[in-house]
Amino acid sequence: CSRPQKVCLCPFLPIHPLKVSTCLYIIQHPAEESRVLRTVPLLAACLPPDKCKILVGRRFSEDRYPELATVCRSPNTLILYPGAEATNLEEVAVMSASPSVMIIIDGTWSQAKDIFYKNSLFRLPKQVQLKTNISSQYVIRTQPTNTCLSTLECAAIALTIMEKNKSIQETILRPLQALCSFQLQHGAQIHHSKEHLLKNGLYDKPMPKNKRKLRRMELLVNNVKI
């Protein structure tokens, strides 16, 4: 896990990489690469190298990324990104029998949105989303809403659905739970979602002057899906 011995996460990783038929392509925003507490390295440590491929960047053209372009054009490729056009992943998994490829964008919500909409390749695969009310266990990082999940959590749930194996989710989440536990023991604080803070009058930062951002906060308070 490349962490100091006192906070080593290796005992919480699977002894052998999980056997999965689904291949993940993690499209990582460059800003995530420099974060200390990232979840993607933990995800990669749980899977075989050929089943978890990480591409770092903001723009992905067909000329520079021919392999990714081929993957995006394949009928067996899915992209996990919520929206009006997205289908419930569970519905897709029921109809799919062949091994699939899943693309997941790793970054803040604004970074993920920028990558998705400014790269035409990512609108070629079938768009899917997770229908879940599970609260994030990544409590050492602030999320927009209570049900926003980290990249590792999204991958764990998605693989569990695609592989039809409930133990996958438990195995992949184990190192994340240990990471959060270690951080809390060493002085980190639990980060409630922005939604929770706003609804309970605990948001202590200046309100944005930008009308669009202010409107998004109002929607969070009123529990409107954004």
From TrEMBL:
Record domain DTW: where: 1-188
Source organism superkingdom: Eukaryota
Pfam families: DTW (PF03942)
GO BP annotations listed: tRNA processing
EC number: 2.5.1.25
Catalytic activity line of the entry: a uridine in tRNA + S-adenosyl-L-methionine = a 3-[(3S)-3-amino-3-carboxypropyl]uridine in tRNA + S-methyl-5'-thioadenosine + H(+)
Record family assignment: Belongs to the TDD superfamily. DTWD2 family.
Protein name: tRNA-uridine aminocarboxypropyltransferase
Organism: Nycticryphes semicollaris
Lineage: Eukaryota, Metazoa, Chordata, Craniata, Vertebrata
Gene (UniProt): Dtwd2
